[in-house]
Specification:
CATH architecture of the largest domain in chain B: 3-Layer(aba) Sandwich
Number of domains of chain B: 2
Order of helices and strands of chain B: EHEEEHEHEHEHEEHEHEHEHEEHHH
Low-confidence stretches of chain A: none
Largest interface: A-B, 28 and 31 residues
Oligomer: heterodimer
Radius of gyration of chain A: 23 Å
Mean pLDDT of chain B: 94
Strand order of the largest sheet of chain A: 3-2-1-4-5-8-9
Structural class of chain A: alpha/beta
CATH superfamily of the largest domain in chain A: Glycogen Phosphorylase B
Number of strands of chain A: 15
Distance between the termini of chain B: 20 Å
Low-confidence stretches of chain B: none
Strand order of the largest sheet of chain B: 3-4-2-1-5-6-7-8
CATH class of the largest domain in chain A: Alpha Beta
Shape of chain B: globular
CATH class of the largest domain in chain B: Alpha Beta
CATH architecture of the largest domain in chain A: 3-Layer(aba) Sandwich
Distance between the termini of chain A: 53 Å
CATH superfamily of the largest domain in chain B: Glycogen Phosphorylase B
Helix content of chain B: 25-40%
Largest sheet of chain B: 8 strands, mixed
Structural class of chain B: alpha/beta
Shape of chain A: globular
Helix content of chain A: 40-55%
Radius of gyration of chain B: 21 Å
Strand content of chain A: 15-25%
CATH topology of the largest domain in chain A: Rossmann fold
Number of strands of chain B: 14
Chain lengths: 426, 369
């Protein structure tokens, strides 16, 4: 099967799990004999060329916080439209890739930053079958103008962009619906995964009286991405305030600013909390063997993060908020511990473990077994493959021409530009 | 029999709340013509814009739907609405009136995305160059022009068909009882490109002139009033359709003296793409006189249904001749009326449009099947 993958970013140029997951699936599909071409953006810093990765899209990078503080409102709104709604240059690049590669199916990933709605409109116009793998609320994001979902765009999304969706949690589907879009077509929930070699199941688990080794990780540590690391630091301070010193917390991830280190200092937990910087994904998965629990205080709308799943094979027990997407996949007290998403909630769970009121061993063993059997990419890739095959069989009759699709993209881009600027001209 | 639905998109509509011009009356007439010529096989929804939504019946089978405009554009023809996709959704075909506006750009984009067959007719009101710059008319299935002159402006490989006329010949009729014709008439918006200043200047002092229309340009209206001093010129700026009908019937001739270069030095490449008022006058049995520019000469058979003038002397002599020869006026008027009935009535134009719509809709169904 010839699969054209579209992703806003692609490793080594990546923001987090979405892009890393995309690369893992691409590798898995290729290893199963499929011909895969990745269409992504020119990298933000130089990367080496890879034959199966075509970096011809243009990224409108709104993830740089500095941009928001140093741009005029109209410039930001134009950038937002280009990022979410329409970028004719990228439609042109997509058309070229479709013509040259002639895929059986297009496998869509993250579309923000590349004019995602226009790209989907282009596929729709040409009647190219697609599967969209959702790990974030992208359908809602690409129907946003001026930071709000436009009901008319959401309605047209529902009416026209019927296709095949894979979503990493029911919570994500519900969130997109709450924002105005009921995903139209075949929607399947498919959890995130752990990929590649996994460490052996540990033989020893935490024993009360010893130091509790806590790990937390995120791709980025800083103000821009709310990964809840402030809760981890404050939970450490809670424990100390209760006279408990027998714990250590390591936080892995790229340090974007000083907010976390400043908090560690101000909370007086420098002896207990260390910022360890980033590790490669495989190194991180191996490193989880050295920890007893994985603190996962992610934001409420976390669709389904990779990290807690990656901690599972080595029996490192996730302690997570009750409401995140990951909590759909694991049972409290069976495969994980679920706590209120507060510093106190995390502190109380850690205290219970240290005091011996919670035994981690049975939880860790069950978790390790579950992740091996149900959450390894090797187990999930046949489902993805079936979905792609199903979509590829879809009839293509009645599609428009590439010339039409490009004209429509140019027209949409100009219209958006003028409509955004007009109030500022008046 | 399933009724097919045509969506007519126009940035403005013929109403005091919107705009009163030929470019607005014309789509309404065509809509009626399509419904009547198709014996009810077609319905037309005229979609336009305003501050608040509105839906009202305009005629049997013809409704006006006003969408809530998104923002207030700098140019009145640049109306758009987020409600457009929903408004088009149930249409079998979209006919866009006014080709070079943001309204038409949005209409083309939405209609094409919804896979609707698209017709486009221009009425000369350009407010945006994007359609032309990007060759967007290629996205349309059919261009419908109201004159050869109008057709000559399109630069597209999309097929163009000329369908002339579109006047309501059952509304605009000769008087059922004899009336005394006693004036020269100009009827239309009081705008510089209409050349009314030239008409007033050329008017023989012994002949009365009635200038009837909305004064959309205050300085020009002031100029006309100044030029009219010492002549028998009556200005009527608030006439309704009944008054207009009466004025047509009482005139020796209706004059459309439009110009390319107006009295303020502004150039108008498309002063008249048809000239609806001369057709209305002809329908009333009144001869039509126009300047020899733009589309008007296509509609006047010289010496038979009216005159075409080259200069002020031509115009003055034609007016004197008609004013002095009531029989000639009646003879020309009868021939003008017959010509309208045969060629320019909106039912005739509607019938021709129905043939286009039938073909495009059938083709779309075949592709979909």
């Amino acid at each position: 099967m010839k699969v054209l993958v579209i992703s806003n970013l692609y490793p080594p140029d990546a923001l987090g799990g979405y892009e890393m997951g995309c690369a893992q699936v691409v590798d898995a599909l290729r290893s199963r004999g499929h011909e895969v071409l990745v269409l992504t953006t020119a990298p933000r810093t130089p990367v080496s060329n890879t034959d199966h990765v075509l970096r011809t899209l243009r990224l409108t990078d709104l993830w740089v916080e500095y941009t928001h503080f140093r741009s005029a409102p109209v410039t930001l709104r134009l950038a937002e439209a280009e990022s979410h709604v329409i970028n004719a240059f990228n439609v042109h690049a997509l058309l070229a890739a479709l013509k040259d590669f002639e895929p059986d199916v297009v496998y869509v990933w993250g579309l923000t930053g590349i004019g995602g709605l226009g790209l989907m409109g282009c596929l729709h116009h040409l009647r190219i079958p697609w599967v969209w793998h959702l790990m974030d609320d992208i359908p809602a994001s690409i129907c946003k103008i001026d930071n709000r979902v436009i009901p008319a765009l959401a309605q047209q999304f529902e009416e026209q962009l019927s296709g095949h969706f894979l979503a990493c949690s029911q919570q994500l589907i519900n969130e997109i619906k709450r924002k105005g879009i009921s995903l139209p077509g075949e929607v399947e929930v498919l959890s995130n995964w752990v990929a590649g070699p996994i460490p052996p199941v540990r033989s020893t688990y935490y024993q009360p009286g010893t130091k509790l080794r806590i790990v937390a990780s995120a791709a980025h540590i800083g103000r821009t991405y709310d990964k809840g690391m402030d809760l981890v630091v404050k939970a450490a301070a809670h424990l100390r305030s209760r006279g408990i010193e027998n714990f250590a917390i390591d936080i892995f991830g790229k340090i974007d600013d000083t907010s976390c280190s400043d908090l560690i200092k101000s909370e007086g937990v420098c002896d207990h909390v260390r910022l360890r910087g980033p590790l490669r994904q495989s190194e991180l998965i191996a490193a989880y063997q050295d920890y007893d629990v994985f603190a996962f205080p992610a934001r409420l709308r976390e669709p389904c993060a990779f990290a807690p799943i990656e901690a599972g094979p080595s029996g490192c027990v996730p302690i997570m908020g009750q409401l995140g997407g990951n909590s759909e996949w694991f049972v409290h007290g069976v495969h994980c511990l679920k706590v209120p998403r507060t510093a106190q909630g995390f502190a109380q769970a850690w205290e219970a473990i240290i005091a011996g009121r919670i035994n981690l061993e049975p939880i860790g063993r069950r978790l390790a077994a579950l992740v091996r059997s149900d959450f390894h990419l090797e187990q999930l890739i046949p489902k993805i493959e079936r979905k792609l095959l199903l979509a590829a069989d879809q009839p293509r009759e009645g599609g428009g021409t590439s010339a039409e699709a490009y004209r429509l993209a140019l027209l949409a881009e100009r219209l958006a530009s003028f409509l955004i600027q007009e109030p500022y001209c008046a | 029999m399933s009724v097919k639905k045509i969506a007519y998109l126009a940035p403005l509509y013929f109403d005091e709340k919107s705009y009163l011009g030929g470019g607005e009356r014309y789509p309404l007439n065509l809509a009626k013509g399509v419904v009547e010529a198709s014996d009810g096989r077609y319905e037309v929804e005229l979609i336009s814009f305003g501050e608040a939504p509105l839906r009202q019946s305009m005629a049997p089978g013809v409704t006006l739907r006003v969408l809530t405009a998104a923002g207030k554009p700098i140019h009145p023809l640049d109306m758009v609405s987020w409600e457009l996709p929903e408004a088009f959704s149930s249409a079998n075909l979209v006919h866009i009136h006014q080709a070079y506006t943001r309204c038409s750009e949005a209409g083309l984009l939405v209609a094409k995305q919804l896979r609707k067959p698209i017709c486009v007719t221009d009425h000369g009101g350009t407010s945006s160059p994007i359609v032309e710059h990007l060759g967007i008319l290629e996205l349309a299935d059919q261009i419908v022009a109201q004159s050869d002159f109008a057709a000559s402006f399109f630069r597209t490989s999309t097929p163009i068909q000329v369908i002339k006329g579109g006047v309501d010949a059952s509304r605009f009729t000769p008087s059922p009882t004899p009336v005394k014709r006693d004036r020269v008439l100009f009827l239309g918006r009081l705008l510089p490109h209409k050349g009314i200043d030239r008409l007033i200047a050329a008017m023989p002092p012994e002949l009365p002139l009635t200038v009837c229309g909305r004064a959309y340009d205050a300085p020009y209206f002031q100029l006309l009033q100044t030029l009219a001093e010492g002549k028998t010129v009556e200005f009527i700026t608030d006439a309704d359709d009944d008054r207009i009908l009466d004025l047509y019937r009482r005139a020796w001739a209706n004059i459309l003296p439009s110009v390319h270069l107006d009295c303020f030095g502004n150039l108008h490449t498309q002063p008249e793409l048809m000239g609806l008022s001369i057709l209305e006058a002809m329908a009333c049995g009144t001869p039509a006189i126009s300047s020899r520019i733009a589309a008007m000469p296509e509609f006047i058979v010289e010496g038979e249904t009216g005159f075409v003038f080259d200069d002020a002397d031509d115009l003055a002599s034609a007016l004197r001749m008609l004013a002095a020869n009531p029989d000639l006026v009646e003879w020309m008027g009868r021939r003008a009326r017959r010509r309208v009935e045969q060629e320019y009535d909106y039912r005739v134009a509607g019938g021709r449009l129905v043939q286009i719509y039938d073909r495009l809709i059938t083709r779309t169904w075949e592709v979909a099947a």
